[in-house]
Amino acid sequence: MFYITPPSTAQEPFRFQNGAEAWGTLHCRGQDLSHTEPVFATMYELDYTGPVRKIRRRVGNDGRFHLQLVDNKTGAMVKIFHRCNKDPKDKSCKVFQWYLPKKLIPPGSEKFMQGFGTQDLVDFKNYDGEDGCNV
After folding, report:
1. In angstroms, rounded to a whole number, what is the distance separating the alpha carbons of residues 59 and 76?
2. Angle CA(115)–CA(34)–CA(32) in degrees, nearest 5?
3. Strand 15-16 vs strand 116-117: parallel, antiparallel, or unpaired?
4. Gap between the Cα atoms of 45 and 128, Å rounded
5. How many CA atoms lie within 13 A of 46 on its CB side?
6. How far is CA 30 from CA 3, 34, 88, 131, 135, in A?
7. pLDDT tens-digit series, residues 37-51
8. Is residue 24's pLDDT more than 50?
9. How far apart (Å, rounded) are the C-alpha atoms in residues 16 and 117?
10. Angle CA(75)–CA(78)–CA(81) in degrees, nearest 5?
């Protein structure tokens, strides 16, 4: 599993809001307990009654991650683009994805998935249902 923590200088609790961007650290807890990486996360609007929205934002090749949520009707798909500043089809662009079951999405936020805290991210699994720490 993995979870995200805010920078130590954060003045407010680290929460994703619709359209907001945030910096933090991705902590993986698996075989390598020391594995941490910076994370650059953006929460996007999810509309469960409309088409899937896929939004990518390029980031620098400095170890940052880009987190993307994609509506898939039953939950939220999270894609993390690791050191991805080229075309996603480029082999040098690693893409990891996780799945958040809809039952874990806060009530009333099916249309605009807003304000869920870092504790929810602990329940993310990758799309194959395995431990999400194999980044």
Report:
1. 22
2. 100
3. antiparallel
4. 24
5. 26
6. 12, 9, 26, 8, 10
7. 433 333 333 333 333
8. no
9. 7
10. 165
Q: Can you tell me which residue has the tokens 């941490």?
A: 36
* Amino acid residing at 51: P
Task: Give 28's strand partners.
Answer: 2
Unique residue bearing structure tokens 């683009």 = 81
For residue 73, which amino acid is it? K
Q: What are the two backbone dihedrals, phi and then psi, of residue 130, each rounded to the nearest 5 degrees?
A: -90, 175
CA distance 84 to 63: 9
Rounded Cα distance between 13 and 30, Å, is: 25
The separation between CA 99 and the C-alpha centre of its own chain, rounded to angstroms, equals 9
Among 21-30, 51-60, 98-107, 116-125, which range has the highest average pLDDT? 98-107
